[in-house]
């Protein structure tokens, strides 16, 4: 799993320092969101802010001001960076009152255009509904999948029940609707944006249990994260069908989502 060097890192709207990063390095407790920024805008800004606020209430017992988050992102981008990948991490500096906000600015990214290959692994993220910093397991399995020639790991539970991949949601098109796994998972921002965009195009979404053995029966399987969407061509040694029409609709639905000013 490739790690892209940051262009800029700020903690509480100031350049990173050893003292500023020490609490996160030693305690490894916090939450985050990742967004693509183009021209100082991002998709689903309200959803990102709601995610951060809800996670902060659960982890630290209070909400997180959205205006403060936006101010920190704008400060980190400055006047010289219009397009970027933003990783925003919220953590508490020891027993201090306010949580700290770290903004990591990396070059803009996106989902690979080629159909994806996934390797199944029996693993589920702890506290899966929160996008949190304790990500050793998913990084480990994602990197192992890449070394084996796949693009990512497909996380499953007992009986082959599918939840998500190490870095994305996974959806299944049954010919009439998109099915998202009814399993412990993170409700990704792109997943939340796709649901109404697809519904507007006559493709409803629903939840149900999906097992690895069910995959060949679907017309198309796809993944979605902050980088976009991509079809899945194979899982382990099984080749999956891809419906070009549905893939085109997925791309069009995603591209139709407006960009919000940060």
Features:
9-stranded mixed sheet; D-amino Acid Aminotransferase, Chain A, domain 2; about 260 residues; D-amino Acid Aminotransferase, Chain A, domain 1; Aminotransferase class IV family protein
CATH superfamily of the largest domain: D-amino Acid Aminotransferase, subunit A, domain 2
* Sequence of secondary-structure elements: EEHEEHHEEEHEEEEHEEEEHE
Q: pLDDT average, as an integer? A: 95
Q: Measure the end-to-end span.
A: 29 Å
- What structural category arises from helix and sheet content? alpha+beta
> Do you know the CATH topology of the largest domain?
D-amino Acid Aminotransferase, Chain A, domain 2
Number of helices: 6
Range of strand content: 25-35%
Structurally, the number of domains stands at: 2
Largest beta-sheet characterization: 9 strands, mixed
State the low-pLDDT regions, or none.
none
Q: Quick one: CATH class of the largest domain?
A: Alpha Beta
- Write down how many β-strands occur, each being a DSSP E stretch of 2 or more residues: 16
Instruction: Calculate Rg over CA atoms.
Output: 18 Å
The assigned CATH architecture of the largest domain is Alpha-Beta Barrel
Q: What global shape is seen?
A: globular
**Helicity, as a percent range:** 25-40%
